[in-house]
Hints:
Elements: H1 2-11, H2 17-20, H3 23-26, H4 29-37, H5 40-55, H6 61-69, H7 81-93, H8 95-102, H9 124-142, H10 147-155, H11 168-181
Helix pairs in contact: 5-6, 5-11, 6-10, 7-8, 8-9, 9-10
Amino acid sequence: MYRVSQFFRALTAWVPKRELSLLSEYLTPPQAELFLQMPRCDQRHGLDVFHALRRKQHHDRDLLTVALLHDVGKSDGRLRLWHRVLIVLIEALWPQLLGRLASPPELGGTEGGLAADEPCSWRYPFFVHQHHPERGAELAQVAGCSPITIELIRRHQQPPASNPFGTRQDELLAALQEADGVN
């Protein structure tokens, strides 16, 4: 049921102008431009993660910036809603296939024509999905985000650290992943 509701939230996503006014409080103009370049469903998701963190009394500026921008690496990746549905199904039924579809050429990802990392390839959206944390970190760096923000974007899909006495960055990552997981 969670995935069904997630699908309908993505299908009907909207972001009121009053919510966009938040951006100037937490993002610099280049960072806000990154946010605005994301598809509306990713903007809505970022805002939902942001609000979830605020409800849990998180006020760390880097963490709130990451909440808004953690999926920016998906923008400009031709990742449509039907791709997202297909990705969820493949992850559930045949996770190895997703890895093969998304593999860059150096990992043997040239099956079925063009390499997965070529924008004109039919496999490019799968590549973008798998590699959006790295892509997002690069975009965040260009937009002038802090090193902590960049690293949290890069790590946001990694399994949580098992060390309960991790770094402050690990604590921020755990908070982000918790809020991301329920939104």
